[in-house]
Amino acid sequence: MKTSIIGYPRVGALRELKFASERYFKGKGSVEELQQTATELRAANWKLQQKNGVDYIPSNDFSFYDGLLDAACLLGIVPQRYQALGLSPLETYFAMARGYQGEHGDVKALAMKK
């Protein structure tokens, strides 16, 4: 019998992604630090699954914020009001998730309902 899982918690054992995201949102951490934390978490998750005998380790199950938002971005379904901000792809992603008020404009977050 071969084993797999449908995804792995992305936040980290010590909630590292949450804290890195909060630092980034408050302007106390850089995008590079946030991405480095994400990279380290993904690698640690893969290694832990491998160590524990998972045969088929899932990929592309990581999200900075929301899986459905990830799918929308992957498919290019980004409303014009967010594209018009002229932000980087990651900043646009967070603008859709959390809203954006800054030098590039003012938009509310998308209505993401669970």
UniProtKB/TrEMBL annotation:
Organism: Paenibacillus tianmuensis
Family annotation (InterPro entries): Cbl-indep_Met_Synth_N, UROD/MetE-like_sf
Domain of life assignment: Bacteria
Annotated ranges, domain Cobalamin-independent methionine synthase MetE N-terminal: 3-114
GO molecular function, one term: 5-methyltetrahydropteroyltriglutamate-homocysteine S-methyltransferase activity
One Pfam family it belongs to: Meth_synt_1
The protein's name: Cobalamin-independent synthase, N-terminal domain
GO biological process, one term: amino acid biosynthetic process
